[in-house]
Amino acid sequence: MKTTFAPRGLATFALAALPMAVQAADPHSDSAAEFQSLNPMVVTAALAPRTADQSLASVTVLDEATLRRQDPTSVTDLLRGQPGVDVTTQGSFGKQSSLFLRGTGSNANVLLIDGIRLRSATTGAAAWEFLDPRMFERAEIVRGPRGSLYGADAVGGVIQLLTPEGEEGAPQPRVSVGGGSFNTQRYSASLAGSSGGTRYYVTGSRFETDGTPVRRDGDDKGYDNTNGLVRLSHAFGNDAEVGLLALRARGSTEFDASGAATDDFVQQVAGVYGELAVTDSWRSRLTLSEARDERETLAPTYTSLFETRTRTARWQNTLALGLHELVAGAEYAEDDLGDSQTSGLSFDEERRYNRAVFAQGFLDFHPLTTQLSLRHDDNQAFGEELTGSLAFGYALDNHHMVRASYGTAFRAPTFNELYFPFVGSSNSDLNAETSQTFELGLRGQYGSWFWDLAAYQTKVDDLISLDETFRPVNVDEARIRGAELALGAEVDDWTLAVALTWLDPESRSGDNAGKRLARRATQGVRLDVDRELGDWSLGGSWVAQNHRYNDAANGDRLPGYGTVNLRAGWDFAPMWSLRATLENALDKEVVTAQGADFDPVTFQAMPFDYINAGRAAFVSLHFGG
Protein backbone atom coordinates (compact mmCIF):
# COMPACT_ATOMS: atom_id res chain seq x y z
CA MET A 1 0.00 0.00 0.00
CA LYS A 2 1.32 3.42 -0.89
CA THR A 3 2.59 5.57 1.95
CA THR A 4 0.64 8.81 2.30
CA PHE A 5 2.60 11.84 3.36
CA ALA A 6 1.55 15.41 3.45
CA PRO A 7 -0.19 17.99 1.34
CA ARG A 8 2.46 20.17 -0.22
CA GLY A 9 0.84 23.56 0.26
CA LEU A 10 1.24 24.00 4.00
CA ALA A 11 4.68 22.38 4.03
CA THR A 12 5.99 24.53 1.19
CA PHE A 13 4.62 27.68 2.77
CA ALA A 14 6.09 27.00 6.20
CA LEU A 15 9.49 25.85 4.99
CA ALA A 16 9.67 28.94 2.83
CA ALA A 17 8.76 31.12 5.79
CA LEU A 18 11.43 29.63 8.04
CA PRO A 19 14.44 31.03 6.13
CA MET A 20 12.78 34.45 6.20
CA ALA A 21 12.49 34.10 9.97
CA VAL A 22 16.15 33.18 10.21
CA GLN A 23 17.22 36.15 8.10
CA ALA A 24 15.09 38.49 10.18
CA ALA A 25 16.51 37.27 13.49
CA ASP A 26 19.07 39.31 15.35
CA PRO A 27 21.71 36.79 16.42
CA HIS A 28 23.08 39.18 19.01
CA SER A 29 19.81 39.83 20.82
CA ASP A 30 19.88 38.85 24.49
CA SER A 31 16.31 39.79 25.40
CA ALA A 32 15.47 36.81 27.59
CA ALA A 33 11.98 38.07 28.38
CA GLU A 34 11.01 38.58 24.75
CA PHE A 35 12.19 35.17 23.58
CA GLN A 36 11.71 33.10 26.72
CA SER A 37 9.43 30.70 24.84
CA LEU A 38 12.35 29.79 22.55
CA ASN A 39 14.74 29.06 25.43
CA PRO A 40 12.36 28.24 28.29
CA MET A 41 13.13 27.08 31.79
CA VAL A 42 12.92 23.29 32.19
CA VAL A 43 12.66 21.58 35.59
CA THR A 44 12.32 17.94 34.49
CA ALA A 45 15.72 17.42 32.93
CA ALA A 46 17.84 18.14 36.02
CA LEU A 47 15.46 18.33 39.03
CA ALA A 48 15.99 22.10 39.07
CA PRO A 49 15.26 25.03 36.74
CA ARG A 50 17.60 25.22 33.76
CA THR A 51 17.11 26.91 30.42
CA ALA A 52 16.75 24.51 27.53
CA ASP A 53 20.26 25.19 26.23
CA GLN A 54 21.75 24.68 29.72
CA SER A 55 19.93 21.43 30.50
CA LEU A 56 22.45 19.18 28.65
CA ALA A 57 19.48 17.17 27.34
CA SER A 58 17.17 17.01 24.36
CA VAL A 59 14.07 18.84 25.55
CA THR A 60 10.86 20.22 24.08
CA VAL A 61 8.59 22.56 26.01
CA LEU A 62 4.97 23.14 24.98
CA ASP A 63 3.97 26.28 26.83
CA GLU A 64 0.61 27.78 27.76
CA ALA A 65 0.42 29.83 24.56
CA THR A 66 0.89 26.68 22.48
CA LEU A 67 -1.80 24.80 24.39
CA ARG A 68 -4.24 27.68 24.01
CA ARG A 69 -3.59 28.12 20.30
CA GLN A 70 -3.95 24.44 19.45
CA ASP A 71 -6.65 23.64 22.06
CA PRO A 72 -6.32 19.87 21.42
CA THR A 73 -9.04 17.45 22.50
CA SER A 74 -6.47 15.04 23.95
CA VAL A 75 -2.93 15.04 25.32
CA THR A 76 -1.94 12.51 22.65
CA ASP A 77 -2.89 15.01 19.91
CA LEU A 78 -0.62 17.56 21.57
CA LEU A 79 2.34 15.17 21.80
CA ARG A 80 1.96 13.37 18.47
CA GLY A 81 4.87 14.06 16.13
CA GLN A 82 6.94 16.08 18.60
CA PRO A 83 10.69 15.27 18.33
CA GLY A 84 11.23 11.61 19.20
CA VAL A 85 7.54 11.05 20.04
CA ASP A 86 5.36 8.45 18.32
CA VAL A 87 1.75 7.77 19.31
CA THR A 88 -0.43 4.83 18.34
CA THR A 89 -4.14 4.67 19.08
CA GLN A 90 -6.97 2.18 18.79
CA GLY A 91 -9.39 4.82 17.59
CA SER A 92 -10.16 8.41 18.58
CA PHE A 93 -11.62 10.01 21.71
CA GLY A 94 -10.48 8.14 24.79
CA LYS A 95 -9.42 4.94 23.05
CA GLN A 96 -6.36 3.01 24.19
CA SER A 97 -3.16 4.83 23.26
CA SER A 98 0.52 3.99 23.46
CA LEU A 99 3.32 6.53 23.47
CA PHE A 100 6.77 5.55 22.18
CA LEU A 101 9.60 7.86 23.19
CA ARG A 102 12.72 7.39 21.08
CA GLY A 103 11.48 3.95 20.03
CA THR A 104 11.08 2.61 23.57
CA GLY A 105 7.79 1.04 24.59
CA SER A 106 4.89 2.79 26.28
CA ASN A 107 5.90 1.22 29.61
CA ALA A 108 9.52 2.37 29.21
CA ASN A 109 8.90 6.08 29.66
CA VAL A 110 7.61 8.07 32.62
CA LEU A 111 4.62 10.40 32.95
CA LEU A 112 4.72 12.94 35.76
CA ILE A 113 2.01 15.36 36.83
CA ASP A 114 3.61 18.11 38.91
CA GLY A 115 6.31 15.63 39.93
CA ILE A 116 3.90 12.80 40.79
CA ARG A 117 4.14 9.69 38.65
CA LEU A 118 0.92 8.29 37.15
CA ARG A 119 0.74 4.82 35.60
CA SER A 120 -0.89 1.41 35.93
CA ALA A 121 1.19 -0.96 38.08
CA THR A 122 -0.36 -3.94 36.27
CA THR A 123 0.58 -2.84 32.73
CA GLY A 124 3.37 -0.39 33.59
CA ALA A 125 2.02 2.19 31.11
CA ALA A 126 0.20 5.49 31.56
CA ALA A 127 -3.34 6.01 30.27
CA TRP A 128 -2.51 9.07 28.17
CA GLU A 129 -5.93 8.99 26.50
CA PHE A 130 -7.81 9.95 29.69
CA LEU A 131 -6.00 13.24 30.42
CA ASP A 132 -7.67 16.52 29.44
CA PRO A 133 -5.06 18.98 28.10
CA ARG A 134 -7.08 21.91 29.47
CA MET A 135 -6.03 20.84 32.97
CA PHE A 136 -2.40 21.74 32.27
CA GLU A 137 -0.35 24.86 31.67
CA ARG A 138 2.66 23.30 29.94
CA ALA A 139 4.30 20.04 28.95
CA GLU A 140 8.01 19.23 29.18
CA ILE A 141 9.35 16.40 27.03
CA VAL A 142 12.82 15.21 28.09
CA ARG A 143 14.28 12.60 25.75
CA GLY A 144 16.97 10.16 26.81
CA PRO A 145 17.47 8.00 29.92
CA ARG A 146 16.56 9.57 33.27
CA GLY A 147 16.70 6.44 35.44
CA SER A 148 19.32 8.03 37.69
CA LEU A 149 16.84 10.79 38.59
CA TYR A 150 13.42 9.13 38.42
CA GLY A 151 14.06 5.42 38.82
CA ALA A 152 12.31 2.61 36.96
CA ASP A 153 11.06 2.92 33.38
CA ALA A 154 12.71 6.23 32.41
CA VAL A 155 14.47 4.49 29.48
CA GLY A 156 13.18 6.60 26.59
CA GLY A 157 12.66 9.69 28.68
CA VAL A 158 10.22 11.60 30.87
CA ILE A 159 7.17 13.69 30.03
CA GLN A 160 5.91 16.03 32.73
CA LEU A 161 2.55 17.82 32.62
CA LEU A 162 2.52 20.93 34.82
CA THR A 163 -0.60 22.55 36.25
CA PRO A 164 -1.12 26.32 36.63
CA GLU A 165 -0.68 28.24 39.86
CA GLY A 166 -2.47 31.44 40.74
CA GLU A 167 -0.93 34.76 39.75
CA GLU A 168 -0.69 37.75 42.09
CA GLY A 169 -3.78 39.94 42.11
CA ALA A 170 -7.54 39.64 41.96
CA PRO A 171 -9.17 36.27 41.17
CA GLN A 172 -9.04 35.44 37.47
CA PRO A 173 -12.00 33.43 36.16
CA ARG A 174 -12.04 31.49 32.90
CA VAL A 175 -15.02 29.79 31.28
CA SER A 176 -15.23 27.88 28.02
CA VAL A 177 -18.14 26.17 26.25
CA GLY A 178 -18.06 24.48 22.89
CA GLY A 179 -18.78 21.49 20.72
CA GLY A 180 -18.71 20.11 17.23
CA SER A 181 -18.61 16.97 15.14
CA PHE A 182 -19.87 13.61 16.42
CA ASN A 183 -22.18 15.41 18.88
CA THR A 184 -19.17 16.48 20.91
CA GLN A 185 -19.63 18.82 23.88
CA ARG A 186 -16.86 20.41 25.90
CA TYR A 187 -17.02 22.66 28.96
CA SER A 188 -14.46 24.03 31.38
CA ALA A 189 -14.23 26.64 34.12
CA SER A 190 -11.44 27.79 36.42
CA LEU A 191 -10.59 30.35 39.07
CA ALA A 192 -7.04 31.40 39.92
CA GLY A 193 -5.44 34.02 42.09
CA SER A 194 -3.07 34.90 44.91
CA SER A 195 -3.46 36.79 48.16
CA GLY A 196 -1.34 37.14 51.27
CA GLY A 197 1.20 34.55 50.18
CA THR A 198 -1.50 32.01 49.23
CA ARG A 199 -1.81 30.91 45.61
CA TYR A 200 -4.77 28.93 44.36
CA TYR A 201 -6.03 27.36 41.15
CA VAL A 202 -9.33 25.47 40.91
CA THR A 203 -10.74 24.08 37.68
CA GLY A 204 -13.17 21.56 36.29
CA SER A 205 -13.96 20.27 32.80
CA ARG A 206 -16.38 17.97 31.02
CA PHE A 207 -15.94 16.26 27.66
CA GLU A 208 -18.47 13.97 26.01
CA THR A 209 -18.94 12.68 22.49
CA ASP A 210 -20.83 10.03 20.55
CA GLY A 211 -17.47 9.17 19.01
CA THR A 212 -16.72 7.44 15.73
CA PRO A 213 -16.26 3.81 14.67
CA VAL A 214 -12.89 2.32 15.61
CA ARG A 215 -13.10 -0.23 12.77
CA ARG A 216 -14.54 -0.05 9.28
CA ASP A 217 -18.32 -0.54 9.15
CA GLY A 218 -18.40 -0.51 12.95
CA ASP A 219 -20.62 1.39 15.35
CA ASP A 220 -19.79 4.71 16.96
CA LYS A 221 -17.82 4.34 20.19
CA GLY A 222 -18.59 7.07 22.69
CA TYR A 223 -16.49 8.66 25.39
CA ASP A 224 -17.09 10.94 28.38
CA ASN A 225 -14.67 12.40 30.91
CA THR A 226 -15.16 14.68 33.91
CA ASN A 227 -12.05 16.32 35.39
CA GLY A 228 -11.36 18.33 38.52
CA LEU A 229 -8.18 19.96 39.80
CA VAL A 230 -7.25 21.88 42.95
CA ARG A 231 -3.81 23.37 43.56
CA LEU A 232 -3.01 25.42 46.67
CA SER A 233 0.22 26.75 48.14
CA HIS A 234 1.20 29.16 50.89
CA ALA A 235 4.55 30.88 51.37
CA PHE A 236 5.52 31.87 54.91
CA GLY A 237 7.70 34.79 55.92
CA ASN A 238 10.56 32.48 56.98
CA ASP A 239 11.06 31.31 53.36
CA ALA A 240 9.08 28.12 53.93
CA GLU A 241 6.26 26.87 51.72
CA VAL A 242 3.56 24.22 51.88
CA GLY A 243 1.18 23.12 49.16
CA LEU A 244 -1.17 20.49 47.84
CA LEU A 245 -2.37 19.13 44.51
CA ALA A 246 -5.44 17.00 43.76
CA LEU A 247 -6.43 15.95 40.24
CA ARG A 248 -9.14 13.46 39.31
CA ALA A 249 -10.49 12.29 35.95
CA ARG A 250 -13.46 9.94 35.82
CA GLY A 251 -15.49 8.67 32.89
CA SER A 252 -16.16 5.84 30.48
CA THR A 253 -15.12 4.86 26.99
CA GLU A 254 -16.63 2.34 24.61
CA PHE A 255 -14.36 0.04 22.64
CA ASP A 256 -14.53 -2.91 20.28
CA ALA A 257 -14.26 -6.43 21.72
CA SER A 258 -16.29 -8.53 19.26
CA GLY A 259 -19.30 -6.64 20.56
CA ALA A 260 -20.23 -3.73 22.80
CA ALA A 261 -17.71 -3.16 25.58
CA THR A 262 -17.08 -0.33 28.03
CA ASP A 263 -14.22 0.78 30.24
CA ASP A 264 -15.10 2.83 33.32
CA PHE A 265 -11.96 4.59 34.52
CA VAL A 266 -10.52 6.79 37.24
CA GLN A 267 -7.19 8.60 36.98
CA GLN A 268 -6.12 10.43 40.11
CA VAL A 269 -3.09 12.09 41.67
CA ALA A 270 -2.91 13.75 45.07
CA GLY A 271 0.05 15.15 46.94
CA VAL A 272 1.19 17.48 49.69
CA TYR A 273 4.62 19.04 50.09
CA GLY A 274 6.61 21.17 52.45
CA GLU A 275 9.73 23.12 51.48
CA LEU A 276 12.14 24.92 53.77
CA ALA A 277 15.25 27.02 53.27
CA VAL A 278 17.51 25.42 55.87
CA THR A 279 20.28 27.92 55.08
CA ASP A 280 20.83 30.53 52.39
CA SER A 281 22.24 27.82 50.11
CA TRP A 282 20.34 24.70 51.21
CA ARG A 283 16.69 23.99 50.44
CA SER A 284 14.92 20.83 51.59
CA ARG A 285 11.60 19.51 50.24
CA LEU A 286 9.42 16.60 51.37
CA THR A 287 6.59 15.35 49.13
CA LEU A 288 3.96 12.75 50.02
CA SER A 289 1.78 11.58 47.15
CA GLU A 290 -0.60 8.93 45.88
CA ALA A 291 -1.48 8.07 42.27
CA ARG A 292 -4.43 5.87 41.34
CA ASP A 293 -5.24 4.07 38.10
CA GLU A 294 -8.60 2.27 38.11
CA ARG A 295 -10.37 0.50 35.26
CA GLU A 296 -13.45 -1.69 35.22
CA THR A 297 -14.16 -3.46 31.93
CA LEU A 298 -17.51 -4.87 30.89
CA ALA A 299 -17.21 -6.94 27.69
CA PRO A 300 -19.41 -9.64 26.08
CA THR A 301 -17.11 -12.50 27.13
CA TYR A 302 -15.46 -11.19 30.30
CA THR A 303 -15.40 -8.60 33.05
CA SER A 304 -12.36 -7.30 34.90
CA LEU A 305 -11.44 -4.80 37.55
CA PHE A 306 -8.00 -3.31 38.06
CA GLU A 307 -7.25 -0.79 40.81
CA THR A 308 -3.62 0.13 41.27
CA ARG A 309 -2.21 2.72 43.65
CA THR A 310 1.30 4.03 44.10
CA ARG A 311 2.11 5.85 47.33
CA THR A 312 5.40 7.75 47.41
CA ALA A 313 7.44 9.69 49.93
CA ARG A 314 10.28 11.71 48.38
CA TRP A 315 12.81 13.84 50.24
CA GLN A 316 14.94 16.09 48.05
CA ASN A 317 17.69 18.50 49.08
CA THR A 318 19.24 21.15 46.86
CA LEU A 319 22.56 22.75 47.81
CA ALA A 320 23.83 25.77 45.87
CA LEU A 321 27.62 26.12 45.81
CA GLY A 322 28.25 29.26 43.82
CA LEU A 323 27.79 28.31 40.19
CA HIS A 324 27.59 24.63 41.11
CA GLU A 325 24.65 22.70 42.48
CA LEU A 326 24.20 19.43 44.34
CA VAL A 327 20.90 17.55 44.61
CA ALA A 328 20.54 14.54 46.90
CA GLY A 329 17.63 12.66 48.35
CA ALA A 330 15.75 9.48 49.09
CA GLU A 331 12.49 7.96 47.91
CA TYR A 332 10.17 5.25 49.15
CA ALA A 333 7.33 3.99 46.93
CA GLU A 334 4.79 1.22 47.33
CA ASP A 335 2.64 -0.26 44.56
CA ASP A 336 -0.67 -1.73 45.72
CA LEU A 337 -3.19 -3.58 43.55
CA GLY A 338 -5.94 -3.00 46.09
CA ASP A 339 -9.09 -4.82 44.98
CA SER A 340 -7.69 -5.71 41.52
CA GLN A 341 -8.99 -8.97 40.15
CA THR A 342 -9.35 -10.70 36.81
CA SER A 343 -12.05 -13.30 36.17
CA GLY A 344 -12.25 -13.92 39.91
CA LEU A 345 -8.54 -14.81 40.24
CA SER A 346 -6.11 -13.04 42.56
CA PHE A 347 -2.51 -12.06 41.85
CA ASP A 348 0.11 -14.07 43.74
CA GLU A 349 1.53 -10.77 45.03
CA GLU A 350 -0.49 -7.59 45.38
CA ARG A 351 2.10 -5.21 46.86
CA ARG A 352 5.73 -4.33 46.41
CA TYR A 353 7.96 -1.58 47.72
CA ASN A 354 10.88 0.27 46.18
CA ARG A 355 13.54 2.12 48.20
CA ALA A 356 15.96 4.48 46.50
CA VAL A 357 18.66 7.05 47.15
CA PHE A 358 19.90 9.46 44.49
CA ALA A 359 22.37 12.27 43.98
CA GLN A 360 23.22 14.69 41.20
CA GLY A 361 26.01 17.18 40.73
CA PHE A 362 25.71 20.07 38.29
CA LEU A 363 29.11 21.71 37.85
CA ASP A 364 29.55 24.91 35.87
CA PHE A 365 33.12 25.66 34.76
CA HIS A 366 32.10 27.95 31.92
CA PRO A 367 32.41 27.26 29.03
CA LEU A 368 32.37 23.60 30.23
CA THR A 369 29.37 22.26 32.14
CA THR A 370 29.09 18.79 33.67
CA GLN A 371 26.14 16.85 35.05
CA LEU A 372 26.74 13.62 37.00
CA SER A 373 23.94 11.61 38.62
CA LEU A 374 23.63 8.26 40.37
CA ARG A 375 20.70 6.32 41.84
CA HIS A 376 20.36 3.03 43.68
CA ASP A 377 16.99 1.23 43.70
CA ASP A 378 16.10 -1.74 45.91
CA ASN A 379 12.86 -3.36 44.76
CA GLN A 380 11.04 -6.07 46.68
CA ALA A 381 10.08 -7.93 43.50
CA PHE A 382 13.16 -7.89 41.25
CA GLY A 383 16.10 -6.84 43.41
CA GLU A 384 18.61 -4.00 43.15
CA GLU A 385 19.46 -1.72 40.23
CA LEU A 386 22.14 0.96 39.95
CA THR A 387 21.73 3.63 37.29
CA GLY A 388 23.83 6.63 36.41
CA SER A 389 24.47 9.29 33.82
CA LEU A 390 27.27 11.62 32.82
CA ALA A 391 26.77 14.61 30.54
CA PHE A 392 29.09 17.32 29.27
CA GLY A 393 28.24 20.60 27.60
CA TYR A 394 30.64 23.03 25.99
CA ALA A 395 29.67 26.54 24.93
CA LEU A 396 31.38 27.16 21.60
CA ASP A 397 30.34 30.82 21.76
CA ASN A 398 27.38 32.84 23.02
CA HIS A 399 24.93 31.02 20.77
CA HIS A 400 26.14 27.46 20.23
CA MET A 401 26.55 24.58 22.66
CA VAL A 402 27.67 21.03 21.98
CA ARG A 403 26.72 18.26 24.43
CA ALA A 404 27.53 14.60 24.92
CA SER A 405 26.07 12.15 27.40
CA TYR A 406 25.99 8.53 28.52
CA GLY A 407 23.22 7.13 30.69
CA THR A 408 21.80 3.87 31.94
CA ALA A 409 18.21 3.02 32.85
CA PHE A 410 15.97 0.04 33.50
CA ARG A 411 12.37 -1.03 32.98
CA ALA A 412 10.78 -2.81 35.90
CA PRO A 413 8.74 -5.99 35.25
CA THR A 414 5.06 -5.21 35.74
CA PHE A 415 2.65 -7.04 38.03
CA ASN A 416 1.09 -8.62 34.94
CA GLU A 417 4.46 -9.96 33.80
CA LEU A 418 5.42 -11.19 37.25
CA TYR A 419 2.16 -12.43 38.76
CA PHE A 420 -0.72 -12.48 36.23
CA PRO A 421 -3.15 -15.05 37.67
CA PHE A 422 -3.47 -17.43 34.71
CA VAL A 423 -1.28 -20.55 34.74
CA GLY A 424 1.79 -20.15 32.54
CA SER A 425 1.09 -16.48 31.69
CA SER A 426 3.55 -14.87 34.13
CA ASN A 427 7.07 -15.37 35.44
CA SER A 428 8.06 -14.28 38.96
CA ASP A 429 11.77 -14.83 38.13
CA LEU A 430 11.96 -12.00 35.57
CA ASN A 431 14.81 -9.51 35.73
CA ALA A 432 14.46 -5.85 34.88
CA GLU A 433 15.27 -4.75 31.35
CA THR A 434 18.43 -2.62 31.28
CA SER A 435 19.63 -0.01 28.79
CA GLN A 436 22.68 2.02 27.84
CA THR A 437 22.42 5.20 25.78
CA PHE A 438 24.99 7.43 24.12
CA GLU A 439 23.94 10.83 22.77
CA LEU A 440 25.61 13.70 20.95
CA GLY A 441 23.83 17.02 20.44
CA LEU A 442 24.37 20.53 19.14
CA ARG A 443 22.12 23.54 19.78
CA GLY A 444 22.03 27.00 18.27
CA GLN A 445 20.18 29.61 20.35
CA TYR A 446 19.64 33.07 18.87
CA GLY A 447 17.44 36.06 19.54
CA SER A 448 14.28 34.99 17.76
CA TRP A 449 14.98 31.42 16.66
CA PHE A 450 16.78 28.24 17.64
CA TRP A 451 17.67 24.82 16.33
CA ASP A 452 18.63 21.62 18.14
CA LEU A 453 20.15 18.51 16.56
CA ALA A 454 20.71 15.23 18.42
CA ALA A 455 21.88 11.72 17.47
CA TYR A 456 21.80 8.75 19.84
CA GLN A 457 22.03 5.00 20.23
CA THR A 458 20.26 2.90 22.88
CA LYS A 459 21.03 -0.74 23.57
CA VAL A 460 18.47 -2.70 25.60
CA ASP A 461 19.29 -6.05 27.23
CA ASP A 462 17.01 -8.61 28.88
CA LEU A 463 14.00 -7.41 26.91
CA ILE A 464 10.89 -9.12 28.19
CA SER A 465 8.94 -10.98 25.51
CA LEU A 466 6.65 -13.98 25.24
CA ASP A 467 8.03 -17.44 24.49
CA GLU A 468 6.23 -20.13 22.46
CA THR A 469 3.92 -20.84 25.42
CA PHE A 470 3.11 -17.10 25.85
CA ARG A 471 5.09 -16.89 29.07
CA PRO A 472 7.16 -13.71 29.59
CA VAL A 473 10.92 -14.35 29.61
CA ASN A 474 14.15 -12.28 29.46
CA VAL A 475 15.50 -13.28 26.06
CA ASP A 476 15.47 -10.38 23.62
CA GLU A 477 17.88 -7.58 22.82
CA ALA A 478 17.23 -4.38 20.89
CA ARG A 479 19.29 -1.59 19.38
CA ILE A 480 17.68 1.77 18.70
CA ARG A 481 19.43 4.46 16.71
CA GLY A 482 17.96 7.82 15.93
CA ALA A 483 18.34 11.49 15.12
CA GLU A 484 16.12 14.48 15.84
CA LEU A 485 16.05 18.02 14.57
CA ALA A 486 13.92 20.70 16.20
CA LEU A 487 13.61 24.30 15.00
CA GLY A 488 11.55 27.19 16.32
CA ALA A 489 11.15 30.85 15.47
CA GLU A 490 9.14 33.87 16.60
CA VAL A 491 9.40 36.74 14.15
CA ASP A 492 6.99 39.66 14.06
CA ASP A 493 3.59 37.98 14.37
CA TRP A 494 4.73 34.53 13.14
CA THR A 495 5.35 31.48 15.33
CA LEU A 496 6.96 28.47 13.67
CA ALA A 497 7.96 25.06 15.03
CA VAL A 498 9.47 22.16 13.07
CA ALA A 499 10.23 18.65 14.34
CA LEU A 500 12.00 15.99 12.26
CA THR A 501 12.55 12.46 13.60
CA TRP A 502 14.52 9.56 12.14
CA LEU A 503 14.50 6.23 13.95
CA ASP A 504 16.00 2.76 13.44
CA PRO A 505 14.49 0.49 16.15
CA GLU A 506 15.78 -3.03 15.52
CA SER A 507 15.40 -6.34 17.31
CA ARG A 508 18.79 -8.03 17.70
CA SER A 509 17.91 -11.55 18.86
CA GLY A 510 15.63 -14.54 18.24
CA ASP A 511 13.57 -15.23 15.14
CA ASN A 512 12.95 -11.51 14.61
CA ALA A 513 16.59 -10.42 14.62
CA GLY A 514 17.04 -7.59 12.15
CA LYS A 515 13.33 -6.76 12.15
CA ARG A 516 11.86 -3.41 13.12
CA LEU A 517 10.27 -3.20 16.56
CA ALA A 518 6.49 -3.38 16.29
CA ARG A 519 4.33 -0.29 15.73
CA ARG A 520 7.25 2.15 15.37
CA ALA A 521 7.48 4.53 12.42
CA THR A 522 11.02 5.33 11.30
CA GLN A 523 10.44 8.81 9.82
CA GLY A 524 8.26 11.60 11.11
CA VAL A 525 7.72 15.32 10.71
CA ARG A 526 5.60 17.86 12.55
CA LEU A 527 5.16 21.44 11.43
CA ASP A 528 3.24 24.10 13.38
CA VAL A 529 2.62 27.53 11.85
CA ASP A 530 0.68 30.36 13.52
CA ARG A 531 0.11 34.02 12.65
CA GLU A 532 -1.36 36.86 14.70
CA LEU A 533 -3.46 39.33 12.69
CA GLY A 534 -4.67 41.94 15.13
CA ASP A 535 -7.70 40.48 16.88
CA TRP A 536 -7.45 37.37 14.73
CA SER A 537 -5.08 34.42 14.77
CA LEU A 538 -4.67 31.71 12.14
CA GLY A 539 -2.63 28.53 12.26
CA GLY A 540 -2.17 24.95 11.24
CA SER A 541 -0.29 21.77 12.04
CA TRP A 542 0.95 19.10 9.67
CA VAL A 543 1.91 15.71 11.10
CA ALA A 544 3.23 12.94 8.87
CA GLN A 545 4.86 9.55 9.46
CA ASN A 546 5.93 6.70 7.22
CA HIS A 547 4.75 3.09 7.45
CA ARG A 548 5.09 0.81 10.46
CA TYR A 549 4.55 -2.89 11.20
CA ASN A 550 1.92 -4.09 13.62
CA ASP A 551 3.84 -7.25 14.55
CA ALA A 552 7.37 -8.16 15.60
CA ALA A 553 7.82 -10.38 12.53
CA ASN A 554 7.08 -7.37 10.26
CA GLY A 555 4.37 -9.24 8.37
CA ASP A 556 1.51 -6.79 8.92
CA ARG A 557 2.40 -3.47 7.30
CA LEU A 558 0.43 -0.34 8.19
CA PRO A 559 0.59 2.60 5.75
CA GLY A 560 2.05 5.99 6.55
CA TYR A 561 -0.13 9.06 6.83
CA GLY A 562 -0.16 12.82 6.67
CA THR A 563 -2.80 14.96 8.39
CA VAL A 564 -3.48 18.69 8.51
CA ASN A 565 -5.19 20.47 11.42
CA LEU A 566 -6.34 24.07 10.95
CA ARG A 567 -7.28 26.61 13.61
CA ALA A 568 -8.50 30.17 13.96
CA GLY A 569 -9.18 32.54 16.86
CA TRP A 570 -11.01 35.84 17.20
CA ASP A 571 -10.71 38.16 20.23
CA PHE A 572 -13.97 39.98 19.53
CA ALA A 573 -14.25 41.83 22.86
CA PRO A 574 -12.22 42.37 26.04
CA MET A 575 -11.94 39.00 27.83
CA TRP A 576 -14.01 37.26 25.11
CA SER A 577 -12.81 35.08 22.25
CA LEU A 578 -13.99 32.49 19.75
CA ARG A 579 -11.86 29.57 18.58
CA ALA A 580 -12.43 27.08 15.79
CA THR A 581 -10.46 24.01 14.77
CA LEU A 582 -10.72 21.71 11.79
CA GLU A 583 -8.93 18.47 12.57
CA ASN A 584 -7.80 16.12 9.81
CA ALA A 585 -8.95 18.75 7.34
CA LEU A 586 -8.23 16.56 4.29
CA ASP A 587 -10.16 13.62 5.79
CA LYS A 588 -7.25 11.17 5.59
CA GLU A 589 -7.52 7.67 7.03
CA VAL A 590 -5.04 7.13 9.87
CA VAL A 591 -4.21 3.58 11.02
CA THR A 592 -1.45 3.08 13.60
CA ALA A 593 -2.53 -0.25 15.14
CA GLN A 594 -4.43 -3.43 14.36
CA GLY A 595 -6.66 -5.73 16.37
CA ALA A 596 -7.81 -9.26 15.67
CA ASP A 597 -10.99 -11.29 15.93
CA PHE A 598 -10.82 -15.00 16.71
CA ASP A 599 -12.65 -17.37 14.39
CA PRO A 600 -14.03 -20.22 16.55
CA VAL A 601 -14.42 -22.46 13.50
CA THR A 602 -10.98 -22.16 11.92
CA PHE A 603 -9.22 -21.19 15.19
CA GLN A 604 -7.45 -18.40 13.31
CA ALA A 605 -7.01 -14.73 14.12
CA MET A 606 -8.65 -12.33 11.66
CA PRO A 607 -6.87 -8.94 11.82
CA PHE A 608 -8.62 -5.61 11.37
CA ASP A 609 -7.43 -1.99 11.34
CA TYR A 610 -8.14 0.45 14.15
CA ILE A 611 -9.15 3.66 12.36
CA ASN A 612 -9.04 7.18 13.72
CA ALA A 613 -11.65 9.87 13.21
CA GLY A 614 -11.91 11.61 9.86
CA ARG A 615 -12.53 15.31 9.34
CA ALA A 616 -13.90 16.98 12.48
CA ALA A 617 -14.84 20.60 13.27
CA PHE A 618 -15.07 22.18 16.73
CA VAL A 619 -16.02 25.69 17.89
CA SER A 620 -15.68 27.13 21.40
CA LEU A 621 -16.50 30.38 23.19
CA HIS A 622 -14.06 31.57 25.88
CA PHE A 623 -14.27 34.16 28.64
CA GLY A 624 -11.29 35.14 30.77
CA GLY A 625 -7.67 36.16 30.54
From TrEMBL:
* Domain spans labelled TonB-dependent receptor-like beta-barrel: 179-584
* Keywords from the named record: Cell outer membrane, Ion transport, Membrane, Receptor, Signal, TonB box, Transmembrane, Transmembrane beta strand, Transport
Q: Which InterPro entries match?
A: Beta-barrel_TonB, Beta-barrel_TonB_sf, Plug_dom, Plug_dom_sf, TonB-dep_rcpt-like
Is the keyword Transmembrane assigned to this protein? yes
Q: What is its main location?
A: membrane
- Could you tell me which CDD domains the record lists for this protein? ligand_gated_channel (cd01347)
- Per UniProt, residues of the TonB-dependent receptor plug domain are 54-158
Which superkingdom, per the lineage? Bacteria
> What membrane topology is given?
Multi-pass membrane protein
Supply the Pfam families for this chain: Plug (PF07715), TonB_dep_Rec_b-barrel (PF00593)
SUPFAM superfamilies cross-referenced by the UniProt entry = Porins
Which N-terminal stretch is annotated as signal sequence? 1-24
Q: Where in the cell is it found?
A: Cell outer membrane
Coiled-coil ranges per UniProt: none
| Record bears the keyword Transmembrane | yes
The UniProt similarity line reads: Belongs to the TonB-dependent receptor family.
This protein is called TonB-dependent receptor domain-containing protein
